[in-house]
Design a protein that fits this description.
Layout: H1 2-19, H2 27-47, H3 55-70, H4 78-101, H5 109-131, H6 147-175, H7 180-192, H8 204-207, H9 211-222, H10 229-242, H11 249-263, H12 266-279, H13 284-296, H14 300-313, H15 319-330, H16 334-347, H17 352-368, H18 373-393, H19 398-411, H20 415-420
Helix pairs in contact: 2-3, 2-4, 3-4, 4-5, 5-6, 6-7, 7-9, 9-10, 10-11, 11-12, 12-13, 13-14, 13-15, 14-15, 15-16, 15-17, 16-17, 17-18, 17-19, 18-19
Length: 426
């Protein structure tokens, strides 16, 4: 009985030892099979044996490559990643052809973007392996790639990876609202190409002007999940890198201003607004906002300089003249205020606010000169004319002209006219 038990145990140990014996790798064979399948599919198309590319063979090759990309015997070889990249290029072409047949719509746009990422990744690996001198790992001696062949591999890899690399930016743009995390993933890969050896001669840091928009897309992806000051600081850092964008730079500047405004950091808000003034002189909003900021802080000299700049930049508009009038009015320099507001009405006759500015300034001057009947009468007449203009232009803006007309007509003993506006005496 003991003998039988011993034999059974010995048999078990033998079976276990056999089960643990490493399986022989088929990676090299699988790689050759995959290459043969791709070549055969292409040759059949070239010779006319097949009218379309046989994607059954492409699928078979791709299945075989899964082992090759994992196995240490083959995953360090140029041919593995060249063949994997080639396979993905075939899939890309199929998706592009299907899109054309489908009125320009991808059946699965996410699958296409995944494909583009794979192409960039595989050809980048191919190039890095080809460019670095091989090292013996103790078991397998990699194939040596001479400089001439390495250059040929590099050119081939770059040719296939450039357009897919650009499409990763499109992926980030398209997905930033629907799937921000996935959009950031593609943008991270896109940003990594700026310093990747495969793209070194492209000098993307200097030549790729879309990088600024990419930073904007990344910032927009971060906004929904922002919860802490550190999150907001990260958003601002990406937005600042997006400011040179020719298409979106102005919107980026406004976005940063809004963030600082929401934080109550008006010093930073003003700093960014000044950048907007410098970078976008054709946009009056930056000048106007900065001018209002200086007025609110009663920095009258600086405000007047900005008003003059508005007039210089937009001489045919009423912006600067009106703002100049508002500054003089706040300083109680009323004669100059009337002059500036009048110039605003000359450039924009339908500006209710400009006419109200004339009226307000003249009315105050009339009251200030009550002891000088003739002068007071002159200013009252000027105020009435301005308010009546405002009434005609905007009959629904009684908050501007209603009470002033009642009060002035009443003060000048024009009882009939005062009666017409008495209802605004509230």
């Amino acid at each position: 009985m003991k003998k039988i038990l011993f034999l059974s145990l010995a048999l078990l140990l033998s079976v276990c030892a056999y089960a643990q014996k490493p399986k022989k790798s088929t990676a090299k064979t699988d790689l050759k099979k995959a290459q043969t399948l791709l070549d055969k599919a292409v040759n059949e198309l070239k010779t006319g044996a097949s009218k379309t590319l046989d994607y059954t063979k492409i699928d078979q090759a791709w299945e075989l490559l899964q082992n090759c990309m994992e196995d240490p015997i083959t995953n360090g070889g140029v041919d593995t990643w060249s063949t994997a990249g080639r396979c993905q290029v075939f899939y890309m072409n199929k998706m592009l052809n299907d899109r054309t047949a489908n009125n320009g719509q991808f059946a699965d746009v996410n699958a296409f973007f995944d494909n583009q990422e794979r192409i960039v990744s595989y050809f980048s690996k191919m190039d890095s392996i080809s460019s670095v001198p091989p090292k013996f790992d103790g078991k397998h001696m990699p194939k040596f790639v001479n400089p001439e062949e390495a250059k040929k591999n590099h050119d081939y890899a770059l040719m296939n990876a450039k357009a897919p690399r650009d499409n990763l930016l499109i992926a980030g743009n398209m997905l930033m609202e629907k799937n921000p995390k996935q959009a950031m993933h593609y943008l991270d890969v896109y940003f990594s190409t700026f310093d990747a050896p495969l793209f070194r001669e492209c000098n993307y840091h200097e030549t790729d002007t879309m990088q600024y928009d990419a930073n904007l897309f990344y910032a927009m992806c971060l906004i929904p999940e922002a919860k802490t000051p550190a999150d907001t600081a990260k958003i601002i850092s990406y937005l600042e890198k997006a400011m040179p964008s020719k298409k979106n730079g102005q919107a980026v500047c406004i976005q940063i201003m809004q963030i600082y405004h929401d934080q109550g950091n008006m010093t930073k808000w003003a700093e960014m607004c000044r950048k907007g003034v410098a970078e976008y002189p054709e946009e009056p909003a930056f000048l106007t906002n900065l001018l209002n900021f200086e007025m609110n802080n009663q920095n009258w000299d600086e405000a007047l300089k900005l008003a003059d700049k508005l007039i210089a930049n937009f001489p045919d508009k009423d912006y600067g003249y009106y703002q100049r009038g508002a500054i003089y009015y706040q300083q109680r320099n009323l004669d100059k205020a009337i002059q500036a507001f009048t110039e605003a009405t000359q450039h924009s006759p339908e500006s209710v606010d400009a006419w109200a500015g004339v009226g307000n300034s003249a009315w105050m001057l009339a009251q200030n000169n009550a002891s000088n009947k003739e002068l007071s009468k002159k200013y009252y007449a000027q105020a009435i004319e301005a308010y009546e203009h405002a009434h005609d232009i905007a009959p629904d803006r009684e908050d501007i002209w209603g009470y002033p007309l009642y009060a002035i007509y009443n003060n000048t003993q024009n009882t009939a006219k005062a009666a017409q506006y008495k209802k605004y005496n509230k």
